[in-house]
Design brief:
The protein is mainly beta. The chain has a single domain, classed as Acetoacetate decarboxylase-like. It has three helices and 15 strands. It has a 15-stranded mixed β-sheet that branches. A hairpin with a 2-residue loop joins β7 and β8. The two termini are 31 Å apart.
Length: 260
């Protein structure tokens, strides 16, 4: 089977991160995925991505398209044939692009819902807000640049945070038929993130008390990526089972720190 590869430029990527109670995060995951724990906490968040020059790898850059996109993410791990593997589980993706919404899950991995975005970029802050057309999710995030990654309960410094997210390059998202997860992998030779500081973040996803009981999801930190050339490739569909529970005993060994 031929698996198409897409080339692009990540024009702007905000990673807004939450530290989440591991039992709460585990309840949102299909088996055999389990939360990847850092200092006893699960890592989840929102990726707010403007991606430009998107085209088949063989096509000229001038033919590429630009779009605003968002993904809600939970960092995960699982047992692979050669040991523990890592990625992010993406319960939903949303996009301003009609083409992305049509092609996702059909031409390339990852089904997308439609959303309307408001973006403002100033020297001292970036604001990205969106509301999904199905009425399920609203996000409004303002992130300002920071010299250091301060105040995080997950990461001691920017270098540790950067490496954590660099290694979680595979995105696994539910397919409509419910039998497997689509796999989309990011690759780049120019990985670089800078520290951000969340000035204001509102997320109906993380503020949903049925999904996250009070105190179980706490805003932790933000990272910023700009001007990074990146390729996206399709992985083998990932078969899933029943939701995973930390009560099974798996995954607890990662609770003491950054695994892998």
């Amino acid at each position: 089977m031929i698996r198409p590869r897409l080339s692009s430029v990540i024009e702007r990527r905000l990673l807004v991160n939450y530290r989440v109670d591991p039992y709460v995060a585990a309840a949102l995951l299909p088996a055999p995925l389990r939360p990847h724990l850092v200092r006893g906490q699960a890592v989840a968040g929102i990726c707010l991505l403007r991606i430009g020059g998107v085209r088949p790898a063989w096509a000229p850059a001038a033919t590429g398209l630009t779009s605003e996109n968002a993904a809600h993410r939970i960092s995960v791990e699982w047992e692979g044939p050669d040991g523990v593997e890592r990625g992010v589980y993406i319960p939903r993706r949303d996009t301003a692009s009609r083409l992305n919404a049509f092609a996702g899950g059909r031409i390339y991995p990852g089904e997308h819902g439609r959303a309307d975005f408001t973006v403002r970029e100033d020297p001292d802050a970036v604001r990205v807000a969106f509301a999904t057309r199905d009425g399920e999710v609203e996000v409004d995030a303002t992130v300002e640049p920071a010299g250091e990654l301060d105040g995080s309960g997950l990461f001691t410094d920017l270098a540790e945070a950067s490496e954590f997210f660099r290694r979680g390059s595979r995105g696994l998202s539910p397919n409509a038929d419910g039998t497997h997860l689509d796999v989309l992998e990011l690759s780049t030779d120019a990985w670089k993130v800078t520290a951000g500081r969340p000035r204001h973040v509102r997320s109906s996803f993380f503020e949903d008390l049925d999904r996250f009981p009070p105190g179980s999801a706490v805003l932790d930190s933000a990272l910023v990526m700009r001007g990074v050339a990146a390729d996206w490739s399709q992985g083998e569909p990932f078969r899933v089972g029943e939701p995973f529970s930390l009560g099974c005993g798996a995954g607890v060994g990662a609770a003491e720190g950054l695994a892998g």
